[in-house]
């Protein structure tokens, strides 16, 4: 009986330790994700190396070069723009590098 009680106590202690490690890992992951988000917000233009700025034109959200070297859209904004041009019957002008 004493051995069984000892085993259950050991199991509980291991479970508590595992829960604390999981909690620490979740907190650390959240911190790292915030750091990455901060870095992503500071993307530079490949041409002039100036940081891109958030911009909205014609209802599309994008990241644009302040020097006018281009703009970058996420997939959803690009699909939306292509859909609008298709409905309007115009051919979108795009430059692929």
Summarize this entry quickly.
This protein has 97 residues and is α+β, with helices and mostly antiparallel strands. It is built from two helices and three strands; from the N terminus they run αβββα. The chain has two domains: 1-41; 44-97, no CATH class.
Keyword list:
single chain; 97 residues; alpha+beta; 2 domains; 3-stranded antiparallel sheet
Q: Walk across the major sheet and give the strand order.
A: 1-2-3
Instruction: Label the structural class.
Output: alpha+beta
* Tally of helical segments: 2
SS elements, strand count: 3
Q: What's the mean pLDDT score?
A: 84
Radius of gyration over all CA atoms, rounded? 26 Å
User: In angstroms, what separates the terminal alpha carbons?
Assistant: 74 Å
- Sketch the major β-sheet: 3 strands, antiparallel
String of helices and strands = HEEEH
Shape: elongated
Task: Point out poorly predicted stretches.
Answer: none
Q: Which percent range fits the helix content? A: 40-55%
What share of the residues does DSSP label as strand, in percent? 5-15%
Describe this structure in words.
This protein is of the alpha+beta class and 97 residues long. The chain folds into two domains: 1-41; 44-97, no CATH class. Helix content is 55%, strand content 12%. It contains two helices and three strands, in the order αβββα. It has helices spanning 2-40, 75-88; strands at residues 53-57, 60-64, 71-72. The protein has a three-stranded antiparallel beta sheet with strand order 1-2-3. Strand 2 (60-64) and strand 3 (71-72) form a beta hairpin. The N and C termini lie far apart (74 Å). The model has no long low-confidence stretch (mean pLDDT 84).
């Amino acid at each position: 009986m004493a051995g069984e009680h000892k085993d259950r106590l050991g199991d509980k202690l291991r479970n508590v330790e595992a829960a604390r490690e999981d909690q620490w890992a979740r907190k650390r992951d959240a911190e790292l994700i915030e750091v990455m988000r901060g870095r992503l917000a500071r993307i530079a233009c490949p041409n002039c190396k100036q940081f891109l700025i958030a911009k909205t034109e014609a209802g599309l959200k994008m990241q644009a070069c302040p020097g006018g070297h281009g703009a970058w859209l996420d997939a959803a904004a690009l699909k939306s723009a292509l859909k609008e041009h298709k409905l309007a019957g115009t051919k979108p002008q795009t430059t692929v590098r």
